[in-house]
Amino acid sequence: MSRTLHAFQAPDLSALARTLKRELEARPELPGHVELLNMLTKAVGYRNYQHFKASRAAEDRLSHPQVAEPAPVIDFRRVELTARCFAGTDVLVRWPGKLNQQQLAIWVMWSFLPAGRDMPEKAVNEILARHNGFGDHVLLRRELVNMGLVTRTVDCRVYRRVERKPPPDARELIRVVKAASSR
Fold it and tell me: What domains appear along the chain, each with residue ranges and CATH number?
């Protein structure tokens, strides 16, 4: 288990020594580790060691604010398993069996659609058919609509890609698929 180091500073060493001497003399036996930590931190003005740690942690957060977002957590195993469905190309050669992998694969299909453009159903079908190796571009189109990545008119004649930022796993899969297909 890793140990967090906490800097300890006493404004008056003499007052610290007097307080510790008084505390130790009042006890019938020597204090344990935690009791000693509590005595030390009480001697410099904290309620106990927990109060000292919480105060130091808050001081660190306030003096070193997080400027950048933490790095997104990517499930690389999920990305790898889904990338296998593309077999090193930009063509989805088989439909993944698991829902979470299907959703990642749909994000890749979304990335092939042009942004900010209305498209007739035929144009969407052509793009999806070009990147579909298992022969069911209609499934892909339906899933794009179901996931809210594509909108369509009531008569289903005009489609438009919805501009959204893909989740971290999807961004990584899109990068992997496009890099593999550009080789």
Answer: 13-63 (no CATH), 76-181 (1.10.10)
